[in-house]
Design a protein that fits this description.
With about 130 residues, the chain is mostly helical. It has two domains: about 1-65, Orthogonal Bundle (Helicase, Ruva Protein, domain 3); about 65-100, no CATH class. About 45% of the residues lie in helices and about 5% in strands.
Length: about 130
């Protein structure tokens, strides 16, 4: 079993498809990595030799921030935005869309399924006051 950056890669997948399971590596980056260390991307992870595993592990560790380091860096960047009072920081703090999306409609993912429209919490009109 191949273990890179604390993640066990599944043995039955192709190496090209298994690398994106590591946080911080996507398909395009996995292709670049495999091209750089000269490993066949169609090879299954179980079929990798010890030497190929070591080359892969060393190349990734030397050149990329992944998993915990990357998550920590992203959290620190968000924290910095909040501290300096940037607009993006206030949007993060309020739990609203950060990158300019509209909020009148279509921000359910960020806000949760909260209905904040006029008729959402009304009582039935049949009730008399």
């Amino acid at each position: 079993m191949v273990r890179i950056s604390g993640v066990n890669l599944p043995p039955n997948k192709r190496v090209e498809a298994a690398l994106p399971l590591i946080y911080g590596i996507g398909f395009p980056l996995s292709r670049k990595i495999l091209k750089a260390i000269e490993v066949n991307p169609n090879k299954k992870t179980a079929d990798l030799t010890e030497e190929e595993q070591n080359r892969l592990r060393n190349y990734i560790d030397k050149n990329f921030k992944l998993e915990g380091q990357l998550r920590q860096e992203i959290l620190m960047n968000i924290k910095l935005l909040k501290e300096i009072g940037a607009y993006r920081g206030t949007r993060h703090a309020r739990g609203l869309p950060v990158r300019g999306q509209r909020t009148r409609t279509n921000s359910r993912t960020r806000r949760g399924n909260v209905r904040r429209t006029m008729g959402s919490g009304r009582r039935a009109s049949a009730e008399k006051t």
